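Sample A.
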Amino acid sequence: MNNPNGLTIDETDHLWVAETDFSPKRVSVWALDGKLLKAFYGPSQYGGGGSLDPKDKTRFYYTGMECRLDWQEGTNEPIAVIFRPGPGDLQAPDGWGSNGLPETPLYAEGRPYMTNCYTSNPTNGAGIAMLWVVREGIARPVAAMGRANDWSLLKGDAFKPGWPQGADLKGDLGQNQTVFAWSDLNDDEQVQPAEVTFAKATGGGFTVMPDLAMVASRIDDRALRFPATRFTPGGAPVYDLGAGETLATGVQAPTTSGGDQALVSGDGWTGLTVAPEPFGAASLGGVYQGVPKWSYLSLWPGLHASHEPPPPDRPGELIGTTRLLGGFVTPPGSDAGPLWCVNGKQGNLYLFTEDGLFVATLFQDVRLGRLWAMPVAQRDMLLNDLTLHDESFWPTITQTVDGKVYLVDGGRTSLVRVDGLESIRRLPPTPLTVTVDMLQAAQAHFLQSEAQRQQARGQSALRVALRGQAPTVDGKLDDWAGADWVTVDKRGVAAYFESNSRPYDVSAAVAVAGDRLCAAFRTGDQDLLRNSGEIANAPFKTGGALDIMIGADRVADPSRHDPVAGDERLLVTVVKDKALALLYRPVVAGTKEPVPFSSPWRTANIDRVDDISDQVTLVGAEGNYELSVPLEALGLKASAGLTLKGDVGVLRGNGFRTMQRIHWSNKATGITADVPSEAELTPQLWGRWEFVAGQ
């Protein structure tokens, strides 16, 4: 027995022992002469776990233990503890997310190995990938690679002479990030300073490939592969930390608690659970022979981000992508090629080809599926409609020698066979030709659809008050109480769990006071106006902004489709803590050199783009914003009874890229990846501004 904690003797003189241990969790029953009579084994850890042996599916590994599976009877029993280091033995790394025990079996160089690279971190990559060789039924440590800051052993004084120059592993993590490689060069199952190499660098997650190559999702800005250069007589692979093969450049850190792992296939593909540049970090991605080739959007990656979204409403929608379940599997009889599987925090799993084709969602989102609560477990029962429940942290995937693919579900540590993968077929290559005429037709369709929506609803009007007293531009909005507030954005749903996120609630009002036009915005987002301004005449591409459209010519045709003289756009944002206000006027008589805004398929010309920042007053407070601008700067002469075309809206971004454009009247503004579409003015979709006397 191990670590007896509670003892009692029953009425039959049997000794019951509650053991404080995890390998295994056990209550044992003994005869008083010391004979073991029975053992009751506890449940799996929170989130399940365990790995099937790919070469022998009667063997199952879980937190340093081996179990025997009887596939005929459907039973299992623990038969060995393969990793229980005693005093003086090398323990597993002790940093969070790096401390997994040997669980995933690998076979290389004629030897069985074990790693913890898929079972150390519930949501992200392992900070340290450890490798053990299995000899005489015991997992013996032979190599490791990862973040030195995550292993207290390497912070000891004996290793200090090997630390990189300027690095202090006991100091501030942000200033002293260091990676390391260790190989047991003398086969004594211990880590000696002479066996460890260090490099000052930021590390991501580390995985071990079937050939025992170590793969780092990030070392600074590169994903690297470290092949074993040789093996010691005892089977320890030796790695050269200075000779990593570059798999990808421009790799990115996770934006939340999910991702940071990489897999390498045998035919040139690298899959990353955080896509590299130029793709967004909120996506999975793939690189072929060093060139980024694909990304697949994961809007809510990771554990905590998955608390925000509503349930999925379409096939292939990713929510809460976290960690890899294991290496590639290749279904026999299919031309899909190697597949890889990513865990979802909400009780489902996502399967992809190595080149980025979505294959399937396995199991259901917890908010949609049936719970795993069947009264009787039956072999071969269909589980498609079930959910693994949220926080199913430790599922794994294995392909056995007979070609079958099995999952270990997170939560109950149940074995599930995945059928039908052999039926996957790729569609034949088909040329896809996109012409300028087709793009123009698509653009016209969106504009026409929005015009039809407005016609069916009735065109909106915004009442612009001609105020006797100007509002104080202070961002407090207490002097806008009687204004005509129009809705800009009320989309979205409340967060699912453990979050204060709410639907958007953005509204705006406009007024004239004296010789100035005033506007107020209620957004609830105090960071709305983060904008890099790196494109001097196009801050509509580089972050958030306030957006005002005005048709200042009172005699212009209200049914016009194209902008005319007097139509203008005032875009206001903050760049480097200073207000930036640009006035765009697409039609100005006498212009000889308009400002072009181009994409590969067309150009939109704006006759003048003027910086009028020195004439605009802007103040924000707690997500509310106020601005004022001289009427003269706009060429606007306001009077009661006047009706003009106009619109108000906001741009949202991440500080360097615009992600959304939303306006009160014109809802055909979803495009944020085509410069001309974002620059041009569409007065036919603006609403009516009605200028009225009073507050």
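Sample B, a different protein:
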Amino acid sequence: MEKKYAKIIILFIFACVFTFGGNFYASAASCSSNTDCGISGYTGNPMCIGNKIYQSYKTYTCVRPNTSSSRCRTSLRLKLKETCTTGQKCSNGACMGTQLSLISSSAPATVNLGDIFEVKCDFGVTQLPCITSIHGDNQCTFIKFEGSSAYFNCVANELGPKNNYCNLFASTQNDTRCVAQTNQIESTNVVAVCTDHDSKKCVSDAVYWFDSCGNQQELEQTCLSGQTCSEGECRNILCSSDSDCGANGYVDSPFCQTGDVYQNYATHACLNPGQSDSKCLTSVIVKLMADCSIDQTCSAGVCTGGLINLIYNSSLEKGTTIPDSWYQGFWGTNNAQFSYPVSGYTGNGASIKMTSYTDGDAKWVFNDVAVTAGDYYIFSDKYISDVETHVVVQYHYENNTFSYEEIGTAPASSAWQTFKAGFNVPSGVDTLTIFHLINRLGTLTIDDYSMIKTENLNVFNQGLVSLTFDDGWQSVYDNAIPILDANNFKSTQYIITNAIGDTTNGYMTFDEINSMHQNGHEIGSHTRTHADLTSASADLQSEVYGSLSDLLISFNNVNNLAFPYGKYNPTVKSFIKDAGYLGARTVDFGFNDKSADKFALKVQIVERGGICGSDTAPLTTLDQVKGWIDEANSNKTWLILVFHQIDNNNSNCYGTTHQMLQDIANYLKTTNTKVITVSQGLSSF
């Protein structure tokens, strides 16, 4: 009875082993591959079940690799290792027989854990029917006899080369063929036998099978576009570039903060681009969208009240490669690189880089806006530039013609600066646009344009007109002074001091200049030699200081200068100020109010027109001059007219006729316009 129960208990134990030998336990861990959990292999000691040898085999598996919920799972199962043959008996986990004393052999040095080998042992006899296994440090199974050789399959269960592959065991059964052999082994040939489809590995962006010996086999899968191969499988690539994560730009609605308009700006970045572990990162910052003016309030993300900005998309926020309602303007021989969007003062900006330059200019241009002739407008923008730049108004007239007025020069600045200038719209103009242009090597970045219609608070008490004459021509003394004196109009005469007395080339004498001065006409400087003061070869000391000294010897109250050719720059302006001048006149078109730059006074030029050497001078009509005078009177601004020769010589294209001057004088008289010298105008600021 006790023996019966004992057999039942043993059978129950075996049943439990075979029934519950699956997943033994599971533990929580973070893993990306099976090897992170452990190395699979045999564990414990071999055991005999019947006449067969079994041993526990532990397998480690990573469940849901590379995820936050990854876990290690361990399974423990019994595996059949060997079946004892006839004449053998399983004892203590081994098939026991009679060992034949034969010479041992070594395996090759490339043996690795788990490798399968075919072992050939040559015994020098044709039959060894009772030889069924060999013994050593690895587990081997008999395959067949062939001639005098026996073949076995062996599995390496330890690393490194192993000995004693050909220590054989023979059965001790009573068989005359099972006589103990002592023949010497003649040779041993160890050949690796590889298991097909042992694992999958990546080759470029494709998955291939590999056998247990590491040899590449057939293609399993080619990764698709947007995938990459990682750890033997095709995985989706989340992003290969920042743009895959989204377009940078403003998100949500504008909102008010500290009295101005702000909006959230999202920037997208791809981390580990093109890899299986790529991911997108989005950062959001707050950017200033609109700087509300003093007379405005911010409400619901909009500047309200105050004056209306007439420029559409003035802050350049709308657009892709070009701002909406803007275009690229350029002319001449140069290479200008336009960029949009770039980082602006608020949000987006636009830039121009001039990389080569002979002549012309480049500018970002907003679409024309409708204006009212005679009204006053204030233009402003934000800019950064490494060179001096210029701001010019392009007027479009009802007769489909154009004119241009430079309203200011913007000095170079490495930080954001504000340019601001006002102007009156000439008669006959229906639309306009404004250029902030670059006309030399360098870079200009612009943002936040504004043009508002307002009242000019910098006007004079009435319109003013100055009559200026350049160079000191004899024809002015002969033909202009009598007309001016007859109307009691006092002029400003800009004299080239080294040309005084050069009657051969048509210049006044000293006595003639002195006579004008004694009669109330103002004497101003036009330098000593009419040199381009911006030229590197210009002698500013001689041209500016020298001409002033020449004139002050004989004439008092010499306090302003006319730039030769109208050329000037910040250095020249600073030099003139240091010399003691109170102002300077340009040939930039426009009118002056009390906000004007005294050292860059604007003018309108009166000339008969034609070809003058390499230059072409436009014809000035009497109606044009009358329109300028009317505009000055209407807007209470200061008009400076520029004349050269006063004669009937058509070859002097910069000059005009004495009849033209007479007609202008008559109109000034008829309209009761106040005529002043330049120094009188400067003293009115």
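Observation for Sample B: The chain has five domains: 21-95, 199-236, 244-304, 326-454, 464-682.
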